[in-house]
Amino acid sequence: MARPDGSARLDVRITLRTDDDALVYAHYNGVLHAPAGVIGRLRGGEPVDPGEYYFRVAPFFETSSPKYAWLTMIVAVGAGRRGPADVSDTVHELL
Fold first, then answer.
1. Contact by Cβ (8 Å): 48, 41
2. Assign residue 78 a region: left if phi > 0, alpha if psi is -120 to 50, beta otherwise?
3. Which domains does the chain have, with CATH numbers?
4. Where are the beta strands (DSSP E) in the chain?
5. Residue 76: its pLDDT value, please?
6. 58 strand-pairing partners
7. Which of 14, 21, 51, 77 is most buried (most C-beta within 10 Å)?
């Protein structure tokens, strides 16, 4: 959701499949903001150094997999990276 100040509020819901075929549902809110010129470069598909923008997320997880049940009991935060054709997050558990 784009805000009038040029920032974006993220509302993401995604089902992930692990490499051992378990399903993990993730839902999270986040914020992306940067100077207007940087946002223009991101939207234009240019590579932009993540140090030029603020992209943070706070995911929560759900799964029926016993192996990944620990994910349902943590609080996590992450930093996003937007590439020309993809978005990725590095997520950490808060201890």
1. yes
2. beta
3. 8-93 (2.40.160.20)
4. 8-17, 23-33, 54-62, 76-82, 87-93
5. 98
6. 29
7. 77
Question: In this structure, what is the dihedral angle of CA atoms 5, 43, 24, 94, given to the nearest 10 degrees?
Answer: -50
Distance of CA 44 to the CA centre of its chain: 20
Rounded mean pLDDT of 38-67? Answer: 95
Which helix H or strand E contains 41, and what residues bound it? Answer: helix 36-43
Q: Is the CB of residue 32 less than 8 Å from the CB of residue 3?
A: no
Look at residue 43 and give its three-state secondary structure. helix
R_g of the chain, CA atoms, integer Å? 15
4-13, 20-29, 54-63: least confidently modelled range: 4-13
